[in-house]
Design brief:
Layout (H helix, E strand, L loop, with lengths): L7 H35 L2 E9 L1 H17 L4 H21 L14 E10 L2 E11 L3 H13 L2 H13 L9 H11 L5 E7 L2 E12 L1
Antiparallel strand pairs: 1-2, 2-3, 3-5, 4-5
Helix pairs in contact: 2-3, 3-6, 4-6, 5-6
Pfam families: DUF6272
């Protein structure tokens, strides 16, 4: 049965209704963006991303981070350390986040997480949050906890030793990544694990480094 054509006046009313809805949504979005930009300026936010991470996405974000650090006037040495830690935190999400796209949508490992870079006077903070399997918590804690009590010289020596040692395939370079961040940080790495009430098999892993 053929559909009856919509009368011109009715088409106009439908168009006006959709237009008003679109304008309302755009206004709300602009208000949210304005609030976010104001908050970003107050918190000296340099970079922020929440969503998917993959090798190609990280490569694209790397260019943005480089530009943002340069625009922010960060000096060369600090910029190098920040960029290095950004890469390590991103790789942590790519390799270890427990949330991923469905199998038929994954292309080279697309994971979910969040990261931000902020400045606090002369200090710069990088924070990374991503879900991990709860049964991986102890392994990560064992890698991170010793770093908090090690001196700078001990961290540098451990870094050199790791470079010489063969990295087990299953480690995905996590130990080296944490050592790299600890070596460049101006304070011990901070981390926390927050079990999810709605999913006991998943824990939120938070990691912060100060440079």
């Amino acid at each position: 049965m053929a559909r009856r054509p919509i009368a011109p006046r009715r088409r106009h009313l439908i168009f006006c209704t959709c237009l008003r809805l679109l304008i309302k949504l755009m206004s709300e979005l602009l208000e949210q963006n304005s609030a976010f930009l104001e908050l970003a300026q107050q918190r000296n936010l340099i970079f922020w991303h929440k969503g998917y991470f993959s090798q190609s996405i990280v490569a694209a974000m790397s260019e943005v981070v480089k530009l943002q650090l340069e625009v922010a006037g960060v000096n060369g040495s600090t910029r190098r350390k920040l960029f290095s830690s950004f890469i390590e935190l991103s790789q942590n999400i790519v390799h270890y986040s427990s949330e991923t796209l469905p199998a038929d949508q994954t292309q080279g490992g697309i994971r979910e997480g969040a990261m931000c870079i902020t400045s606090d006077g002369e200090r710069h903070l990088l924070v990374c949050i991503n879900p991990i399997a709860t049964n991986a918590v102890d392994e990560l804690r064992e890698k991170l906890e010793p770093l908090r009590s090690m001196s700078v010289d001990e961290i540098k020596q451990a870094y050199k030793n790791s470079l010489r040692a063969e990295t087990p395939a299953e480690s995905k370079g996590a130990g080296m990544g944490f050592l790299t961040m600890a070596r460049d940080a101006s304070a011990p790495l901070e981390f926390a694990f927050h079990p999810r009430d709605d999913d006991p098999a998943t824990t939120l892993f938070c990691l912060k480094t100060i440079i």
